[in-house]
Amino acid sequence: MLVEVEVDGSNGLEAFIIVGFPNTSVNESRERVRSAVKNIGCLFPFKRITVNLAPADLRKEGPSYDIPIAAGIHLASGQIAPNDRLTEILFLGEPSLGGSLRHERGAEYCHERIQPLGCAVQGVQERLFEKCCKFGPYTSLYYNPT
Question: Considering the entire predicted model, what is its pTM?
Answer without folding.
Answer: 0.76
